[in-house]
Design brief:
about 375 residues; alpha+beta; Rossmann fold; 2 domains; four-stranded antiparallel β-sheet; 12 helices; about 35% helix; binds adenosine-3',5'-cyclic-monophosphate
Length: about 375
């Protein structure tokens, strides 16, 4: 079945990058990330054991009802608040247990675009934007800094407002200055909270296209909290936060389909529908172009895969020979996870493939939950050897 909604179509389009290539280090890795507000009896949990992996160049859109924890998560990712519980590594730096100084240094690599513009009234647009470069690259000449500030302001459509002060700008124009300021130092990670809310359709498009360009050309990771349906199509993945939990990592509607697929996999045959539904929620989506390698023989196993669309070739030996071809509804990558041994074969995309992947920790957690499931998986494992 070809997905019909535009996001899925984009995700499956082989022309879009296959971003999640094997061996690439994630730019964001959260494990069991929880957060609380208040203390004593008033202590309230706002984030519940969230797992999240984001790769360089990915654009993530985070949606969800207000109060669901989106902004809290965003501020944790940007080291604007300290991690209380769980592990969080962003741009290769562990943020759990990071000192205030380390957090401050880390923040320089991040571009923040928040709704509250915080522009300086006494500075014009170019000077406001320049401030961000001055902080990160103090050694650059004043002329260079000004040129960079003007260039990014032009890119967000403010070429006629370079010397205007915030008071002389409309709400949308101020927002675009704030966006330019968040991007001018070419951060490796951009965290944006409702960046397009105050913008008309055309300005909103200009801004998201700029973000897309950054992601594509500079491998910038972009996380956008938004309710703006007009920009959902730029997302590689949509995360929905509900009551402090990331729901299904882009797969809200797909969860039902995954559940059905899992139920048809021999390994999951006897697992209760309830467990299947929960496991389905924990899958991530991955795209591969024809000829891409998904698993390399000899590598350690990190993920279990389910084929949503496309065909893969399982190949073994040196030189490699095809030993199996797997298609929609089939799974692979379970053996290394079960045995603790390296991958026993390589897996290549034969066609454009849309895969669902389950992190090994979640796979093992699911196995631990149901004895029958573990027995089934092991049986299937030995069947294949
Ligand atoms: P793993 O060892 O984790 O990584 C390579 C995967 O290829 C392996 O898990 C299986 O999922 C798959 N695989 C290996 N041998 C076969 C086979 N004979 N038939 C189908 N799939 C296989």
């Amino acid at each position: 079945m070809i997905p019909t909604n535009s996001l899925r179509a984009t995700q499956f389009d082989p022309a879009t990058r296959s971003k999640i290539s094997l061996g690439q280090t994630p730019s964001i890795r959260a494990e069991a990330l929880s957060h609380y507000f208040g203390s004593g009896e008033l202590r309230k949990q706002v984030l519940f054991e969230n797992h999240l992996t984001v790769y360089p160049g990915e654009i993530i859109i985070m949606t969800g009802p207000s109060g669901s924890g989106k902004t809290t998560l965003l501020t944790l990712l940007g080291a604007l608040r300290s991690v209380q519980q769980g592990n969080l590594e962003v741009l290769g730096q562990p943020l759990d247990g990071a000192s205030p100084k380390a957090m401050e240094q880390f923040r320089r690599q991040v571009g923040f675009i928040f709704q509250a513009h915080n522009l300086f009234d006494s500075l014009n647009a170019t000077q406001n934007v320049r401030m961000a470069i001055e902080l990160c690259y103090p050694h650059r000449s004043a002329h260079e800094q000004t040129l960079a500030a003007e260039e990014i302001l032009r890119a967000v459509g403010l070429e006629n407002r370079l010397h205007h002060r915030p008071k002389q700008l409309s709400g949308g124009q101020k927002q675009r200055v704030a966006i330019a300021r968040g991007l001018v130092h070419q951060p490796r990670l951009v965290l944006a909270d409702e960046p397009t809310a105050a913008l008309d359709e055309l300005s909103g498009r200009t801004v998201v296209e700029l973000l897309q360009k950054l992601a594509r050309e500079k491998q910038t990771t972009i996380v956008i909290v938004t309710h703006d349906n007009r920009i959902l199509d730029v997302a590689d993945r949509i995360l929905t936060l509900v009551d402090g939990s990331i729901r299904s990592d882009a797969l809200v509607k797909e969860a039902a389909i995954i559940t059905q697929m899992l139920a048809k996999c021999k390994v999951f045959e006897r697992v209760t529908p309830r467990t299947l539904t929960r496991v389905a929620d924990e899958f991530n989506i991955e795209n591969y172009a024809p000829g891409d390698q998904i698993i390399r023989q000899g590598d350690p196993g990190d993920r279990f895969y389910l084929i949503r669309q496309g065909k893969v070739s399982v190949r073994k030996g040196n030189p490699e020979v095809q030993i199996a071809e797997l298609a929609e509804g089939d799974f692979f990558g379970e053996m290394a996870l079960l045995s603790g041994q390296p991958r026993n074969a390589s897996v290549w995309a034969k066609e454009s493939c849309l895969l669902y992947s389950l992190h090994k920790d979640r796979f093992h957690a699911a196995l631990a939950e149901t004895v029958s499931m573990e027995a089934e998986v092991r049986e299937a494992y030995f069947d294949r050897q």
